[in-house]
Amino acid sequence: MDTLLSNMEFHQTVPEQFVLPPENRVAGEINASVSLPVIDLRGGPHCHVPDRDELIREVLRAGKEFGFFQVINHGVSEQLMKDIMGVTEEFFNMPKEDKAAFYSEDASKTNRLFSSTIYGKDGPRYWRDCLKLACYPVPETINEWPNKPTKFREVLAKFIVEAREVSMMLLSLICEGLGLKEGYFEGDVSSGQVLINANYYPPCPKPDLTLGLPPHCDRNLITLLLQGDVSGLQIMHQGRWVGAAPIPNAFVVNFGHQLEIITNGILKSVEHRAVTNSGAARMSMAVFIMPTMESFISPAKELTNEENPPLYKSFLFKDFLRIYTDLSAKRVDVMEAFKINV
Ligand code: OGA
Ligand code: NI
């Protein structure tokens, strides 16, 4: 509890546990000549899209080239985007007594507030506080969410339903674009938990010594990320880090490991990390669409044949999660564990 970064005075130095070994630090320039594609979702899931084929092409192009893109005009109102960031900021700004009930260092707990994650045994700490919550279906989960600030539950309930609908719209475009059978992404594979990570990265006196989050790929199917106006998210693209510049009210979209495996590598789960800065606190809200625990994941039959054999193994999602955690979320190791060596 005393380790919550959001309840500390500004650090003058970086405490030793947060100092990364030199090879893991933010090194070299980011590739500033590349930016993430921005896709206009034509009003979002409740709008008629007259040029659906063109939109599908845009999503697949961005998905194949970057595995990461931003979406605007996605149907979630500016007010709701403002409100969700507002209540999250209020949450992190509360005195620590008000957060105590949520604080837990037990990583097996779904709903919890924690700080400075360590991956693996004795690893360095990361410069981030995180509130993690299971949010779906709302009536089954809402009573476990913080009830302070007062509006927190009401705003999150509204936000999560709409954010999930945007994710489902994207999945439906991908489904059609790849020629998968209709509704491929509507069953078990997307109807597990919807988790959120509300991330808080306080200013850091020496950003070159630490990271907010180490390079990782997400474990789920598809992720939407809402970030405020402070930059910090970086994406691996053609061997170099590229910044995801904040665009007001946009969602950053990326694919989790499950989408890479189901599409047999047509869409990639791309490594990303969060860097810190010395000037301003940064907040982000990640929404993770998860398969059910018993969901059977395998490369889609429609996308494999003799010339394109399955590149990945088949498994139950719960078994994937266990291995992902054991391997500290490192892409090369996770992919190695699930790859078929053809
Ligand atoms: C995550 C994540 C990035 C960010 O929570 O998995 O990648 O910018 N967050 O906070
Ligand atoms: Ni992530």
Tally of DSSP helical segments: 8
Number of domains: 1
**Series of secondary-structure elements, N-terminal to C-terminal:** EHEHHEEHHEEEEEEHEEEEHH
- The level of helicity is 25-40%
Q: Which architecture name does CATH use?
A: Sandwich
CATH-defined fold name:
Jelly Rolls
Tertiary shape: globular
Strand order of the largest sheet: 1-2-10-7-12-5-4-3
Q: CATH homologous superfamily? A: B-lactam Antibiotic, Isopenicillin N Synthase, Chain
The overall average pLDDT, rounded, is: 94
Can you put this structure into words, describing what you see?
Strand 1, helix 1 (52-65) and strand 2 form a beta-alpha-beta unit. The chain starts with 37 loop residues before the first strand and ends with a helix. With 342 residues, it is an alpha+beta fold. It has one domain: Sandwich (Jelly Rolls). The chain has eight helices and 14 strands. It has an eight-stranded mixed sheet with strand order 1-2-10-7-12-5-4-3. Bound molecules: N-oxalylglycine (OGA) and nickel (II) ion. Nickel (II) ion binds at residues 216, 218, 272. It comes from Rhynchospora pubera. This is 2-oxoglutarate (2OG) and Fe(II)-dependent oxygenase superfamily protein. Belongs to the iron/ascorbate-dependent oxidoreductase family. InterPro entries: DIOX_N, IPNS-like_FE2OG_OXY, IPNS-like_sf, Oxoglu/Fe-dep_dioxygenase_dom, Plant_2OG-oxidoreductases.
